[in-house]
Amino acid sequence: MTTKVFTKLLGLFVLLLVFYAVVMEIVIYRFAPQGLGNEALWSALIALAVALPVAAWVAGNISRRLDRVVSFARRIAEGDLSVRLGRAGDDSLSAMETALNQTAARLDESFAEIESQRQELAAMLDSMQEAVVAITPEGQVRWSNAVMQRIAGTQIRTGRPLVHSVRDPELLTCVRAALEQREVRSGRASSLASGRVFEINATPLPSGGALAVLHDVTRIEAAEKSRRDFIANVSHELRTPLTSIQGYVETLIDEPSPNTETAHEFLGIILKNATRMNRITEDLLALASVESPDYKLVRQPIRANAMVQDAIDSLGGLVMDSGIELESTGAPDSPVAVDPDAMNQVFGNLIENALKYGKGSKRIRVGARLVESETASEIEFTVQDFGPGISSEHLDRIFERFYRVDKGRSREAGGTGLGLAIVKHIVQAHGGRIWVESELGAGATFHFTLPVSKDAANH
Q1: What is the DSSP secondary-structure string of 117-182?
Q2: How far, in Å, CA of 81 to CA of 72, rounded?
Q3: Are 415 and 404 in contact (CB under 8 A)?
Q4: What is the pTM for the complete model shown?
Q5: The CATH number of 300-458 is which of 3.30.2350.10, 3.40.50.300, 3.30.565.10, 3.10.450.50?
Q6: CA 424 – CA 287 distance, rounded (Å)
Q7: Could you tell me the residue ranges of all domains in the chain?
Q8: In a structure prediction context, what are the per-residue pLDDT tens digits for the chain, which is 459 residues long?
Q9: Which of 383, 366, 371, 382 is nearest to 452 (CA)?
Q10: Other Cβ atoms closer than 10 A to 361
Q11: Phi, psi at residue 301, to the nearest 5°?
């Protein structure tokens, strides 16, 4: 392009010089003396010879500047907004170059601001707990945040059809309705990720396409199920003794003059069921207390060996009446910061549990040991019985509310199914862990840990 401009400018300049020479020749030859005409002709030829290089230089300079403008425009079109033109003077072409530089600078600032806002929006969407995916009008993935990428894995990629990236029918149905019918759709996705439930909200976008937001409601669903199960279990546990009490009371009322022995037997059954209801109520209140966010511990430093000995001394009489020996396996004198009343409840529930379900054995062992690690030191307490043991399928659920390994035997023993749940929450409130190890025919050992109190140790 610039070569053509250079050629045209040079040709135009030559034509102007030739036209000037011809005109001068005609004028001078017609009106001037002979000698003056020859001199004028030579003068014109010399002027032509001098003007041609000057014209070539001027045309070349203009051509080079235009060439830089064309290169500048091409780089701007390719997205390089940092390119600038250098000013070569104060002429009109320089003014145009200045205007182009200002335009490029403003475009650069605008695109930088847009990119900054885009990155900020992407960071905000990535920090959301919800999964977000944008879909084009053709059904392809336009963009997805980090949560969505973690859920869908490597399958979800920009430019790939959503139907090839996720297989959940409810999500695809909601997105299709937002794309085709241009209306907001809601639903629940349960097959997008194993064991997780998502609430879907698909919304059409004004510029076309759709936006789907997925909120993880797995914990809410689990909490709601736990609430329903809890109410059902409480109702069942209370209905059994209430039905029994009601039946025997109605029998006594309907009998005009029951004999003393029958009345005494019925009243004994009523008292037994009333006592069971009272224990259930007390355990429910205790569980509600330890599960509450307002549950407070009044901690004080106590030596581990003192805790074990205190548990044996306070519960030894109860165990001795059953013919089972309660013995210590030893404990370190390292201090732990605990709530004494809460720890009495922990040892009481664990030893009572071993007493109920460890029948047939002759002893229960209580002890503790120091466990050192690179990050922390803790005391591991154990309560061991030598009864029939617990099969492996029950070990992971034994600390759940109202969960019983043998429901019939538990009710006969007077258990409410809440003792181990209470123990778990108390131990966790102290910053510890609890678990059980057992084999059928070899008894069961309950373990729980408490962190060593460094402050108390220093004193």
Answers
A1: HHHHHHHHHHTSSSEEEEE-TTSBEEEE-HHHHHHHGGG--TTSBHHHH---HHHHHHHHHHHHT-
A2: 9
A3: yes
A4: 0.56
A5: 3.30.565.10
A6: 10
A7: 2-80, 128-216, 221-291, 300-458
A8: 445 555 655 566 666 666 655 655 555 555 555 554 555 556 656 665 666 676 666 666 676 777 777 777 777 777 777 777 766 566 666 777 777 777 777 877 777 776 666 666 666 656 667 888 888 988 888 888 878 888 877 677 888 888 888 888 888 889 888 888 888 889 888 888 778 888 999 999 887 889 888 888 888 888 787 778 777 777 877 888 888 888 888 888 887 777 888 888 888 888 888 888 888 888 888 888 888 888 888 899 999 999 999 988 887 776 666 777 888 888 998 999 999 999 999 998 898 888 887 666 678 899 999 988 777 789 999 999 888 888 888 888 888 887 776 655 545 555 567 888 899 999 999 999 999 998 887 888 999 999 998 764 444
A9: 371
A10: 16
A11: -75, 130
Q: Reduce the DSSP state of residue 293 to 3 states and report it.
A: coil
Cβ-Cβ contacts under 8 Å for 377 (sequence gap 6 or more): 334, 370, 371, 451, 452
Q: C-alpha angle with apex 209: 204 to 210, nearest 5 degrees?
A: 45
Sole residue written with tokens 């995916």? 133
Integer Cα distance of 386 and 357 in angstroms: 9
**Distance between CA atoms of 302 and 453, rounded to whole angstroms?**
9
The amino acid at residue 452 is V
Euclidean distance between CA atoms 354 and 236, whole angstroms: 25
**According to CATH, what is the number of the domain 128-216?**
3.30.450.20
By residue count, the chain amounts to: 459
List the end-to-end C-alpha distance of the chain, in Å, as a whole number.
Answer: 91
Domain 221-291: CATH architecture, name and number where available: Orthogonal Bundle (1.10)
